[in-house]
């Protein structure tokens, strides 16, 4: 089992990564608790919920299963989680465990952050994508006008990552998770980027998965340690997300996965970067790798103006113009304000090219 | 104008108390902001909203008026506040101002704490009661199963207290505010307690009001500085609230004011203290003062068991038994677990006596 400690402003918390550790959870608990509420979703509950329950040497263990997907990050389900916590008699010395992907972590984490003004919680990610969201302390639900608009900075008390649970992921989920790993590599590690460009997502080994996830977590953790509240370098983690989030809102959460749309956002960010800084970035290499690994790169027809309006509603947008994360080279991110006219030109030609390449079969 | 600085874990913030300072707000802002959203309620908006708007030298000022009373601390209104903030284009460099009593401060503060994971906010209390809630960083909304169950610790960036705004308070609101002042005096200042017992709430002078509020704020601030997250001495601030909150939930928010029910809770806490510690507390003195100042001390018939069940849902209750704040003497609070049987005996005879005294005209 690997352990990495993350220093947040309010607390330092451990990240445990290992095979089968969901069964050892009792030894990894950061405290003793009057009650435990495990929150998971309909996809994960059948696979791993019993293992975790059995692993807990605790008399008061409750479970709550939420629907799969972004729909679970609604204010209604947020309220239901509170109802559950109250009716189960959870108090301030209780623990919430988020067992699942990013959606479960975000929803359960925000419930923990706000239940009686904050109780302990543990992230148990069961997807590759969740290596990203489980580290850094962002918890949130969605508003009908945008993703993650209602939330807190609230670090977990521990992250327990059992890589055995990744065996049940489907191909789409693997693609989604690897898009965030590619993002992290682009931000800070050209060597890692080249490693990833040689991965075949259809035949990943356990060792490859463990290595990639650990590298991704280290990058993420080092960035959030420097800037927990996203006033500086943490913004870089939004590489690919300005367009990614807008597309997610427009195409409806759930049809494409988060990471698949971030992948398109990464291509766009690289393209804008090349235009802005006269730099040579691995646009073709990434495009080819995405194509080879069956990332869906064909979007329905959406007007550039509609996308820009949506981008401005994103919480990372300053009031006046869109601020994007760009790359001067692999490992050297920066941020820049892009005015609406430039953005329109870039976005229109980017969407045209995607459509053309899709038509030509890549 | 008086200034007091409060040191919270995450930030130090100033409390300004003075006459007419709602008009000077622009000079008291703790930063510069892209937009300002003033949240107030239907009772306060007609009196002071325009003054605050005019006091702001700011091009993007928005206002939102919520209903009066605890009903405004619903999850629906919480969501509406987010909708307003989003559609007005607030971003992370924006400010929310809570102009009103404790309800406005709690609801607007929780919206600020969770909008894009937290933006700046200022408390502008317009009631005596709000001297308490505006200091200390507790923000929350209600769940149908209990008050303030959904919330955060999120200190304001400043508190701007214009005591001129207290002129529009009705008698019930004055009683409500003074009950919390009495609580603070009981916790830490026998001299202040005796001063309060000589106040006639029907004829308070401006000087008396200013003096009492400043003394209350100092007591509150010194306690929350010691224990922001309520793991220790801050619990003492719940003196009178175990019963007070339960009664509030059972009698319906809004019929009695918060402070009026806390006053009944204070009598009960003193009574239990006398039984537990063989001490002589000013029970008669407080009862007489409450009666003289028209506090409603006659409750509808409620079963002690129903009240105990409600107390256990309160977020301050540990799982097993009720933990109450008690007094060894005025200025010396402590906490103690009261088992259900004892509580039942105390509560039954307390309710009987209240009813008897009400029948006998006090």
Number of helices of chain A: 13
Determine the N-to-C terminus distance of chain A.
41 Å
Find the count of extended strands of chain A (DSSP E, 2+ residues). Answer: 11
Largest pleated sheet of chain A: 7 strands, mixed
The name of the CATH architecture of the largest domain in chain A is Up-down Bundle
Helical proportion of chain A? Answer: 40-55%
The CATH topology of the largest domain in chain A comes to: Dehydroquinate synthase-like, alpha domain
Specify the CATH homologous superfamily of the largest domain in chain A. Answer: Dehydroquinate synthase-like - alpha domain
Oligomer: homodimer
SSE arrangement of chain A, N to C? EEHEHEHEHEHEEEHHHHHHHEEH
Low-confidence stretches of chain A: none
Q: Hey, which two chains have the biggest interface?
A: A-B, 41 and 41 residues
- State the CATH class of the largest domain in chain A: Mainly Alpha
Note the beta-strand portion of chain A: 15-25%
Structural class assignment of chain A? alpha/beta
- Sheet with the most strands: spatial strand order of chain A: 1-2-9-6-5-3-4
Overall morphology of chain A: globular
């Amino acid at each position: 089992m690997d352990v990495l400690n993350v220093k947040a402003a309010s607390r330092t918390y451990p990240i445990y990564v290992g095979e089968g550790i969901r069964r050892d959870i009792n030894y990894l608990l950061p405290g003793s608790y009057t009650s435990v509420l495990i929150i998971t979703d309909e996809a994960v509950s059948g696979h791993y919920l019993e293992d975790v329950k059995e692993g807990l040497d605790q008399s008061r263990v409750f479970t709550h299963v939420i629907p799969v997907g972004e729909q679970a990050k609604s204010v209604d389900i947020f309220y239901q989680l509170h109802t559950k916590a109250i009716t189960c008699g959870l108090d301030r010395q209780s623990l919430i465990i988020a067992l699942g992907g990013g959606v479960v972590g975000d929803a359960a984490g925000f419930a923990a952050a706000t239940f009686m003004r904050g109780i302990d919680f543990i992230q148990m990610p069961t997807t590759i994508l969740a290596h990203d969201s489980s580290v850094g302390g962002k918890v949130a639900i969605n508003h009908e006008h945008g993703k993650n608009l209602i939330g807190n900075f609230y670090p977990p008390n521990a992250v327990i990552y059992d890589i055995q649970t990744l065996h049940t992921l489907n191909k789409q989920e693997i693609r989604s998770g690897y898009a965030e790993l590619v993002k992290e590599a682009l931000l800070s590690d050209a060597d890692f980027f080249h490693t990833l460009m040689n991965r075949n997502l259809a035949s990943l080994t356990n060792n490859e998965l463990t290595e990639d996830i650990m590298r991704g977590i280290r990058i993420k953790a080092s960035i959030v340690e420097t800037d927990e509240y996203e006033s500086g370098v943490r913004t870089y983690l939004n590489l690919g997300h300005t367009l990614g989030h807008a597309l997610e809102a427009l195409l409806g959460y759930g049809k494409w996965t988060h990471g698949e749309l971030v992948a398109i956002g990464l291509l766009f960010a690289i393209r804008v970067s090349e235009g802005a800084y006269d730099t040579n970035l691995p646009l073709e290499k990434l495009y080819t790798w995405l194509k080879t690994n069956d990332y869906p790169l064909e979007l329905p027809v959406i007007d550039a103006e509609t996308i820009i309006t949506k981008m401005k509603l994103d919480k990372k947008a300053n009031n006046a113009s869109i601020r994007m994360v760009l790359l001067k080279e692999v490992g050297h991110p920066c941020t820049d304000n892009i005015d609406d006219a430039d953005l329109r030109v870039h976005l229109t030609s980017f969407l045209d090219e995607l459509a053309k390449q899709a038509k030509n079969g890549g």
